[in-house]
Amino acid sequence: MNGSIRTILFLLFLANCGASPAPEFFGATRHDVRRDGRDYVIFRKESRVEIIRLGRVKNGDHHKVRATMIALIPDVTGCEINEKSLQGDSGEMRGSLICE
């Protein structure tokens, strides 16, 4: 296999990785969302949620991005996030939902 084909395959692999759910979210409902110029993917499976930020973030912006991610969860799912269950950072977070 020549170098250019390997490069293309590698880039395709990376493109898929950016929006792939964790194994516990296989079969989850997927929502693609754009907020404040950034793209996010939210996976919901029953009372669990995973949110993934796509793209890069400048140093100093991670706190703002994390807040945006937390705010997106109820907007997209219609449920509140159980703050105590929330794990992750400005790249990927998972948690439990509280739905009434």
Overview of the molecule:
This protein has one domain (3-98). The protein is 31% helix and 33% strand. It is built from two helices and six strands; from the N terminus they run H-E-E-E-H-E-E-E. Strands 1, 2, 3, 4, 5 and 6 form a six-stranded antiparallel β-sheet that branches. It is globular, with a radius of gyration of 15 Å. The N and C termini lie far apart (55 Å). The mean pLDDT is 88. Residues 1-21 form the signal peptide. Keywords: Signal.
List keywords for this structure.
100 residues, signal, 6 strands
Contiguous runs where pLDDT drops below 50 for at least 5 residues: none
Strand content of the residues, in percent? 25-35%
Tell me the domain tally. Answer: 1
How is the quaternary structure best described?
Answer: single chain
Separation of termini? Answer: 55 Å
Radius of gyration: 15 Å
Helix content: 25-40%
Q: What's the number of helices? A: 2
Average pLDDT metric: 88
The beta-strand count equals: 6
| Order of H and E elements | HEEEHEEE
Question: In terms of structural class, how would the helical and strand content be classed?
Answer: alpha+beta
Shape: globular
Describe the sheet with the most strands.
Answer: 6 strands, antiparallel
Keywords: Signal
What topology does this entry show?
Elements: H1 3-17, E1 29-35, E2 38-45, E3 48-54, H2 62-77, E4 80-81, E5 87-88, E6 92-98
Antiparallel strand pairs: 1-2, 2-3, 3-6, 4-6, 5-6
